[in-house]
Amino acid sequence: MSVSVRNIRRGILFLCALFAAVCCGLxxxxxxxEEVRGKGMPVCLTAIYEPGGMxxxxxxxxTAFSDGDVIHVSAEFYAGDISQGASGEKIGKTQYCAYxxxxxxxxxxxxxGGITWPYSCDYGVFTAYYAAQANGAIxxxxxxxxxxxxxxxxASGLTDDTGPMKAGATALAFGHVVRLxxxxxxxxxxxxRLDAATAGEYWLSKPSDPQFHNAFRLVRNPETGxxxxxxxxxxxxxxxxxxxxxxxxxxxxxxxxxxxxxxxxARYSGIKLNYRYNRNYLTLSSEKLNGLKANCSYxxxxxxxxxxxxxxxxxxxxxxxxxxxxxxxxxxxxxFLEAAGNGQEYQEGGMAILEHTNxxxxxxxxxxxxxxxxxxxxxxxxxxxxxxxNLGTTVTFxxxxxxIHNSVRPVFNEVQGRLYNLGISNTVREGKISSDVSxxxxxxxxxSASGTIGNVRISNLSLSLELPLTxxxxxxxxxxxxxxxxGIVSGIGVRGDINIQIKDADAQAGTRSEVLVGGIIGQxxxxxxxxxxxxxxxxxxxxTCVTVRNTCRNVLxxxxxGVVGYSHNNVENVILKVDVDASGSTASNNFTGGMxxxxxxxxxxxxxxxxxxxxVEGRVRGGQAVTVSGVRGKSFTGGVxxxxxxFFISNCNSLCEVSGWNGEAGEGVRYATGGAFxxxxxxxxxxxxxxxxxxxxxxxxxxxxxECYIGTFAGIIPTHRTENGYLENGNRAREVPGxxxxxxxxxxxxxxxxxxxxxxxxx
Length: 763
Known about the structure:
With 763 residues, the chain is mainly beta.
C-alpha cells in the first residue's frame, strides 16, 4: 500500500472514529486514547456452516445458525501484501469479540461494540469458534470457558451440539465483509453392526493414554485471541471416557450403531468400546483408526475384516473438478436429461447413472458430456429432444457431490423442482444463441417460483454468446448459474475462470432487447444467498475471478453486474472477485456495478427488499448511453450498483477500481459515477443505506459538463439526503483528491419528484 493512501486513512482517523462511535452506540472517547476501538471501520461479518460437512448416513447435522447462537471471533491485522499472511507487519493487538445471531445478523455483545479494521492496515486474518454451550463472551484476556464433555447421554441418540466448530484462519483485504465458514472440529466415528442390540449405552475409553481427551474448552489470550483446547474430564471411579446411546435413525443395513465425536488426529487404535460403567465389550485395533481427520465421518464395521475403517461416502466430499478422465463418458445425453428432469432412474452400458428415490433421483457417478450438444442433430441425429428438459416441480435432483464435465449448454431449461449438491466443470459455449431463448446459464436458463437450487459448484465456465436481433422488444438474461431466478438459489461456489462475454450477433443492427447480465444471475426476482469462491484440496491455488464483458449496442436499458445484472428481490452473503466491463456497450439506460447493475424494488411492493452482507473486489467499467426519441439517456456506474431505487442496503463493501464512461459525452445524456453507487434514487422517508463502503484503488468518470456527476460514495444522491446522514448510518468512502462524497444532489426524473418536502429528515 502506498504511503499516500495510508496517510489519507490516518488523516480521517479521528473523524471516522467518532462516526463509528455514534453508529455503534459507544461512549465518546478522547482522540488521543490508544484504547479506542473506533480507530477503524467496523467489521461486518456473516457466518454459515460448510456445505455438506458432517452430514452422513449415520445421522443428521446442524446446518444453520439460529437466534441466540454466539460465535467467538479473533482478528489480527497487518500491513503489506496479503500473501504474507501472519508474516506481515502486524498492526495493533489481536482483537476479540463475541457476536450473537439475531434476526439474520451478527451483533457484537461486548461493551466495546465489535472488531474494527484499523485504517492503517492492508488486510486481516480472522479465526472464529462456535460451541453450543458458550453463549456469552469470555470477559478477560486470560480467561477460559468451562470444560464441556463430548459425551451425549440422551436416549434419543446424538446431536451435533456436543462438538466445537471452527472458521478460519481467513485472510481478507481491508474492508471486506468477513465470511466465516464453520466446519466441525471433531472427527465422527460410527461403529456399526454391533451384536449387542440390547445395550442401552456405550462407553469409549483408552486407559493409560493421557492423550485421550473427552472434553474441550474455549481459551482466550492476548496473542491468539481465542482457541479451542482439548482436555479431559475424569470420573473418580471410571476414569476418562465418552458415552453415547445407540443411534436411532440409521439405515437398517447398519444394524445396531453408535456414533462418537472425537478429537481429530489422535491415535485411536487400541481404543476400548465398552458397555456402561466400562464393562468390557471389545477392543478396536485397526491402524486405520489413527489420524482421523476433522469434519469427516468414518464408519467402522466390526464384522468386516475384523475392523476395517472406511470413510462414509455421504460425508459431503466432492469429486475432483479437474479430472474428467475419471468420469463416465455419457453417450446418450438427451435420454439422461429426460430421465433426470422426470425423476426417473437411468442406466447406460450396464452402468447405473441415476438411482430413483421416492421424491426424485440421485446422481451416482461423475459424467463427461464430452462437449457434445444435446440439441445438435449432428451429435444426436436420432434424438427426440430439440429443446432442453425442465426439472419437474415434483422432482428432487441430488447431485451427490458429483460433477458434470464439458457441457456446452445449460443442463436444464428451467428448474421447477429442487436441485442440490451438483458440480459443473469446464462448461464452454460459443456463438449465436437462438432468438427464441431469453435466459442462459451454466446450470439452467431459469429457475421458476417453485424451484430451488442449493449447494452447487461451478469450476471454470466460459459463455461467449452472440445475441441475435429480435423482431420485437424482448429481454435477455445471462448468468453463470441461471439467466432468470424466480425461486431460491443458495450455496453457490465458483472456482477458476468464470467468464461471461456477450455481444451483438449483428454488429450493425445491434440488439433490440433489454440485456441483463450478471456474474451469478442475470435477473433476480427470487432470493440469492451464500455465494463465494471455493477451493478443491489443500494445494488448490487457483485464482477465481468472475468476469463479465458486455459489448452490446442497444436502444433499450442494459444492466451489467458482478453478482446480478438486475435485482428486485433479496440478495445476501456474497464474497467475490469481479471484473465487470461494459465500456464497449451502448444503451438508453446503461447501468453497471461491481455487485449489481441495477437494484429496484418493484412498484406496489410494500415489503423491504434488501441487498446485504456483500463484498467484492476487482474492477468496474461503465458504458455509454444514448438519448432515444427525446428521452434522456443515462450511464450510471458504481462499485456496488449503478442505480439504486428504494432498496435496503446493509454491509455492502466494494474494493473495486471504478471507471464510469470516460469517452465522448453524448448529447442529452446524464452520467453518474460513484465509488459505491452511480445514482441513489428514493421515495422513502426512512434511510435505506447502512454500513456500506467503497475503498477501491481508483475512481474516474466524466465530470466536466453540466450533466456529469462523480462522488467517492455516490455520483447522485436524492435531494432529501445529506452526506452527514449517510456517514451517521455507517457509510464510508476512501478520499480521492478533487472528488467529493457525492457529485450531485437531485431527484432522478423517474422518481417522480422524490420526497423533497421531507427536508427535516436529512438521512
